Amino acid sequence: MTNNQDETRRDETRSGIEVIIPADSVNLAGTLAVPEGAGGVVIFSHGSGSSRLSPRNNYVASVLHREGIGTLLFDLLTESEDEVYERRFDIDLLTRRLVAATLWLKERPDVLGLRIGYFGASTGAASALKAASVLGAAAISAIVSRGGRPDMASAALPEVKVPTLLIVGGKDYPVILLNQQAYVALRGEKDMVIVSGASHLFEEPGKLEEVAQLAAQWFKRYLTGEVHHAQ
Question: Whole-model pTM?
């Protein structure tokens, strides 16, 4: 039995299998779902105070599954770490965890050869962007940010060469400005969509569905399509 198999709990869930991801000196809980014939896999980086159980991220993941894209949702912090409020905003720590999860995922035989993308929400978008600047376009093929705080990774933005989609709610005024500034700083292929009538969490009817469709289109283009970008 391989190490990966040792780390995988055998209880199947409705949305995938429960996994344990070693990072630093801790083990992080996650859920991995890889549809048959998947054309890519997306790792979710949740916002502060959230977890792999985020209903919004799980909804987006379910839409990606229907489009033939796998997902990994995992806790960036352990329960005890999350009790320390400041750690939720430690972008360097969260970035290390996301990089560790990415390297762990790349070694799994069930995703071998699949392109990897990041979906970052709120502060999680900062760790996604920073991790992409560390790993490069050879490892990460696309990023989607939902209501993200890219300003928290501002120094890394010029180094991000990965196609990046910034999605912001039309009512999320301070975050719109932060994303507009980040859009200018990004050097790779990029797009920004402001979802009319949506607040920071996209809780209004139909708005999260719009986010999920935008994300699915972006990931299908860069994970499952024939589009290649500079490395």
Answer: 0.88
Give residue 16's region: left, alpha or beta (phi > 0; psi -120 to 50): left
Helix, strand and coil percent figures for the chain, each rounded to 5:
45, 25, 30
Q: What is the pLDDT of residues 79-127, one digit of tens each?
A: 666 555 455 558 999 999 999 999 999 999 989 889 999 999 988 999 9
Range of the structural domain that residue 171 is part of = 3-224
Which residue is listed with tokens 């990415």? Answer: 102
Task: Count structural domains, the chain.
Answer: 1
Torsion sign, CA atoms 230, 168, 174, 88: negative
Question: How far apart are alpha carbons 163 and 199 in whole angstroms?
Answer: 24
- Any bridge partners for residue 12, and if so which? 17
* Rounded Cα–Cα distance for residues 46 and 171 (Å): 21
Nearest CA to 66 out of 201, 215, 192 is that of 215
Residue 164 falls within a domain, yes or no? yes
Q: How far apart are CA 125 and CA 122, in angstroms?
A: 6
